[in-house]
Design goal:
about 300 residues; five-stranded antiparallel beta sheet; 1 helix; Tachylectin-2, Chain A; mainly beta
Length: about 300
């Protein structure tokens, strides 16, 4: 499937102790502390003062509780939220999360907002903003794995999807965080039930880069995830790989794959201020446990390269 192998450098050392995590969100800074959210019961929250030493905080939703609308949209949901992402706008934090069951296209992406991420603040309180988008049809875009991009002009885009109908991108209303009136979802990668998921849309200069995972996740050391990329001059594509092949037609330039202890890397999130991305991987030297890792992001001849060092 891979047509163009970009400069590929996988890390041989860890920044520090890589925190346990699956599907880590974008890392975000609030008042000098860093936070990221990840898959888990109630949505897992981790925080750090230095990006090296991470501590797990209280989940977003208390044990056994979640918004009532989820029960209607996703029958059988048991509180295990997937692949959140977070964006700051309008002086609030917008947290998008997935509700589904494994292998199903009956899924939904929800939204909660908060004015602070500091759990000790008297203002800390997640506000349920309801459903953003849902899916029922196996031919459509599975409503999981949200990724957010706020463009330089203030416009906001949600990219999401897994297998089934592929990866879609849709513009959001920047004032509400919900789907913009009149906006439709554009397929930007995958389709025909192929193994595409965990997308991340990043802008750098005049290009939009769409990072997407191929392969199988969630199998520990047997996971086959790897990351490919395409680029476009428009946030809705078309996204082409380094050889000019569209990601909706099987294109995708390889960015990162399994090497040594780092099995099945995936789920890119951008930490722009540090010129880094976060990913997860399955640690072959720790019983296949899923962990978060940070890598430096640079570009060579207009294409992204991930490395351990700057």
């Amino acid at each position: 499937m891979l047509r163009s192998l970009l400069l590929l450098v996988l890390p041989l050392k860890m920044f520090a102790q890589d925190p346990a995590s699956h599907d880590p969100s974008t890392i975000i800074n609030d008042a000098g502390k860093y936070y990221f959210f990840s898959t888990g019961h109630g949505i897992t929250v981790q925080t750090s003062a230095d990006l090296k030493n991470w501590q797990q905080a209280e989940s977003v939703f208390k044990k056994g509780s979640w918004p009532e609308w989820v029960n209607t949209s996703v029958p059988g949901f048991k509180g295990h939220f997937w692949a959140p992402d977070v964006l700051k706008m309008n002086e609030k934090y917008y947290l998008y999360y997935s509700c589904s069951t494994f292998g199903s296209s009956t899924s939904a992406i929800g939204l909660a907002t908060n004015v602070t991420l500091d759990q000790k603040s008297p203002d800390y309180q997640w506000q349920d903003e309801g459903m953003v988008i849902e899916s029922k049809d196996r031919k459509g875009f599975n409503a999981i794995d949200p990724s957010l991009l706020q463009d330089t002009d203030g416009r906001v885009y949600l990219t999401y999807g897994s297998f089934f109908g592929g990866i879609g991108t849709v513009e959001l209303d920047a004032s509400t965080g919900k789907i913009k009136d009149g906006a439709s979802v554009t397929r930007v990668a995958g389709g025909n039930a192929s193994d595409w998921e965990a997308a991340c849309l990043i802008r750098e200069g005049n290009y939009y880069y769409l990072f997407v995972n191929n392969g199988q996740c969630c199998k520990g050391v047997n996971s086959t995830y790897y990351i490919v990329v395409g680029r476009s001059e428009h946030p809705l594509g078309p996204f082409l790989d380094a050889e000019g092949k569209d990601l909706t037609k099987g294109g995708g330039t390889l960015v990162l794959r399994t090497l040594g202890r780092y099995i099945g890397p995936g789920h890119v999130g951008l930490l722009k201020e540090k010129k880094q991305v976060s990913i997860h991987y399955y640690d072959a030297e720790d019983n296949g446990k899923s962990k978060q890792k940070r890598l430096f992001l640079s570009y060579k001849k207009g294409w992204p390269v991930l490395t351990e060092n700057k």
